[in-house]
Design brief:
Layout (H helix, E strand, L loop, with lengths): L3 H25 L17 H14 L4 H12 L10 H8 L3 H12 L6 E12 L15 E5 L2 E13 L4 E8 L19 E4 L7 H9 L2 E4 L13 H8 L3 H11 L11 H16 L9 H7 L1
Parallel strand pairs: 1-5, 5-6
Antiparallel strand pairs: 1-3, 2-3, 3-4
Length: 297
């Protein structure tokens, strides 16, 4: 179980960010002619709510309801003295969606170093044979076939650096081609240099478009393609592409960004964002020591 020291550390980082964001919002908010401004102080602050949601991904619990009732309400009463009921907490956490996303975008994402790894992973919301019975994601999730077979849900596209930090991410429907997000410059505007991916990203037009934007896309070739000359350093880095598989494994099995118990689309997004925040605060990320590789190159 996570220590109180880590919980305090997470709360300090999140609370400091929320204070600065609220100051900016209050300064730039549109003022009305009404003289009555309601400033009711909530029992749980935004910082406390976000901290509890992030701590859940370190707790080992698979169900947030059990985590909140059995652990937070019993063992964390000293850290959070003004706890509310579980049903009220579910209502309050939806108000924290904007601060959570801003905290992830502005504080948690890593910087591109010129070496990036790209891949996508499936986010299943239910078994694909029960897609017609699912009402929560009826008009959002899609059925598609991946490397592990058919699934019903979404895709999480990730770009990481050699340190294991997430540089950028994008959520799409399950039937979207892996190459499609790269055609939108807003997805890779934080990336430069070389980006290593699998064979699913092979495409002449995509390669040329990214090359114009200052990105060199490197992939392995298929069996029916002619072999091309490649620097030994790039060949070694392609073999190290498995680091992003380790990142996906932590996101799914430790941070628990994938489960089939969602009751609304908002909760799905909040759980995913909280999982990405939890990973960014993870102490030992998968990484590659490129100093030795640069000597070889």
């Amino acid at each position: 179980m996570i220590s109180n020291f880590k919980i305090t550390k997470f709360f300090f980082l999140i609370d400091d960010f929320c204070i600065r964001i609220n100051q900016v919002i209050d300064k730039n908010a549109i003022k009305t002619n009404s003289s009555i401004v309601r400033r009711r102080k909530p029992r749980l602050t935004q910082s406390e709510i976000i901290t509890i949601m992030v701590v859940f991904h370190y707790s080992g619990y698979r169900c947030f309801k059990h985590f909140y009732i059995e652990y937070v309400c019993k063992d964390l009463t000293k850290d959070f003295p003004d706890l509310v009921s579980y049903n009220r907490f579910v209502e309050l956490k939806k108000r924290c969606s904007v601060p959570m996303i801003l905290f992830l975008q502005m504080q948690c994402l890593g910087q591109c170093t010129g070496i990036s790894f790209l891949d996508s992973t499936t986010i299943k919301v239910c078994h694909y044979k029960r897609e017609k019975q699912n009402k929560v994601f009826k008009h959002t999730a899609k059925k598609a076939k991946g490397t592990m077979g058919w699934f019903f849900g979404f895709k999480l596209h990730l770009v990481i650096n050699e340190k294991g930090d997430i540089v950028d991410f994008l959520i799409t429907k399950g039937n979207v081609d892996d190459r499609q997000p790269l055609k939108d410059k807003t997805f890779h505007n934080r990336v430069f240099g070389k980006i290593f991916a699998d064979r699913g990203y092979i495409g002449k037009e995509l390669f040329e478009q990214l090359f114009v934007d200052g990105i060199h896309l490197l992939t392995k070739i298929r069996k029916n393609m002619k072999n091309t000359l490649m620097h030994i350093y790039d060949k070694i880095m392609l073999r190290k592409r498995a680091v992003i598989e380790s990142v996906k494994d932590i996101l799914k099995n430790v941070c628990q960004i994938e489960h089939t118990r969602h009751r609304s689309f908002d909760n799905f997004i909040l759980n995913l964002v909280a999982g990405l925040i939890a990973y960014s605060l993870y102490p030992n990320k998968p990484n590659i020591n490129i100093d030795n590789l640069q000597r070889i190159g």
